[in-house]
Amino acid sequence: MVVKSVAINAYQSAMDARRTSVDSKVTQSLKKAPTPVKDFSDTLSESIKGVNDLQTEKKQMIQEFDSGKTQNVHELMISLQKASLTMQMTGAVRSKLMSSYQEIMRMTF
């Protein structure tokens, strides 16, 4: 009998501790303010600005390599690949946007 009551008390203590832990986690998660969502136009503008920055960096590295200021071919090739990949991704996004726009225009109301 004594063993059973000790086991039951230990079990209840563990359950109370677990409940307190879960309650505090839920309270903390409810207190957090939701992260603000950016506008689509802001996200698109930032992405295009990033692509433009990579293109500018590429041109600058090519000019420096041409003039002999730097001889690091490895970084130049990485810069070229980054710029190329971002342009390809931008073109793919542009194509998707255009096809979405055309799809919307074909809708009948």
From TrEMBL:
InterPro entries referenced in this protein's UniProt entry, alphabetically: FliE
Chief location bin: other
Keywords: Bacterial flagellum, Cell projection, Cilium, Flagellum
GO biological process, alphabetically ordered: bacterial-type flagellum-dependent cell motility
Molecular function GO labels: cytoskeletal motor activity; structural molecule activity
NCBIfam families: fliE (TIGR00205)
Family: Belongs to the FliE family.
Name the record gives this protein: Flagellar hook-basal body complex protein FliE
Organism for this UniProt entry: Pseudodesulfovibrio cashew
